[in-house]
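S.,

As promised, the 5,10-Methenyltetrahydrofolate run. Input:
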Amino acid sequence: MNTPIQTQLIDGKAFAYQMTEQVKKNVAQLQKDTGITPGLAVILVGNDPASEVYVRNKTKQTHKVGMRSFMHMLPETTTQQELFNLVQRLNQDPDVHGILVQLPLPKHLDPDPIIQSILPSKDVDGLTAYNAGKLTLGHMDGFIPCTPLGCLMLLQQELPKLRGLNALIIGASNLMGKPMAQLLLNAGCTVTIAHIDTRNTEELAQQADILIVATGCKELVKGSWIKNGATVIDVGINRVITSDKKVKLIGDVAFDEAVGKAGKITPVPGGVGPVTIACLLYNTIQAAQKHVKE
Ligand SMILES: Nc1nc(=O)c2c([nH]1)NC[C@@H]1CN(c3ccc(C(=O)N[C@@H](CCC(=O)O)C(=O)O)cc3)C=[N+]21
Ligand SMILES: [Mg+2]
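Predicted complex:
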């Protein structure tokens, strides 16, 4: 019999708090040195309830660190041209250092041309071809998407050494899986990406020292998929209604099954989510600092 493993929770909330305090100091310093207040513009189109929660959290944290927040809530009926025009305006606005277009957009809008129209120097989400290319080349001076950057920072804190570890990323999106793979490759991991058409995801997971799950499929990863002692990063946030009719957040990992198998795991909520927001603020202060140097 295997003795059950003591599973340690990775406290994303505490990590995010520390990071946010540092950003706050940097904002104050920048203001003192230059008189500039970093500004973040967030565009939200339509009324997806989950997106509204994230955007509200972002706005709250932006104010907390002393940055300016420019919220643009656009109706569901917004056209491609109107959205495009707004991005152009924000690109030219000297008070705006970072621009984020909350995804997903309503179905009638094509996200790619909109994202690609953001000035790379204001692309704090790291989704333009310029910043994605920088990351692929291993240049660390571009903007890195906030969620994978947060996952990397958590892993660097939790593990003594990443070099040589087997990492499996389940999910291959431009926002998460692909940049995560680049980051871990640059950090010396042996990286595998599994996606919807992968036939042996479970088997691959069982080999993984680091397992990162970002699929949006609730509790996809079972306890039996997890290698003993592995570090599990659960990026999923799924809203479910409990039998007593309460809204509950659950991850892409069956958390109760993972306890006793994983060495370390991020909870949902309180894991990757808050760190994502802290990284967004981190990228925005970087954008404002670079703006001064130019
Ligand atoms: N262009 C773009 N950039 C993003 O960075 C981006 C995006 N689109 N679309 C959606 C995802 C998701 N995301 C989260 C932000 C905050 C929490 C967060 O605050 N989570 C809390 C719980 C919040 C809740 O109650 O739902 C937690 O996990 O503890 C989660 C997820 C950013 N994303
Ligand atoms: Mg979980």
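The pocket of 5,10-Methenyltetrahydrofolate (ligand 1) is lined by residues 53-54, 57, 100-103, 125, 146-147, 237, 249, 268-270, 273-274, 276-277 (CB under 6 Å). DSSP finds ten helices and eleven strands in the chain.

- D.
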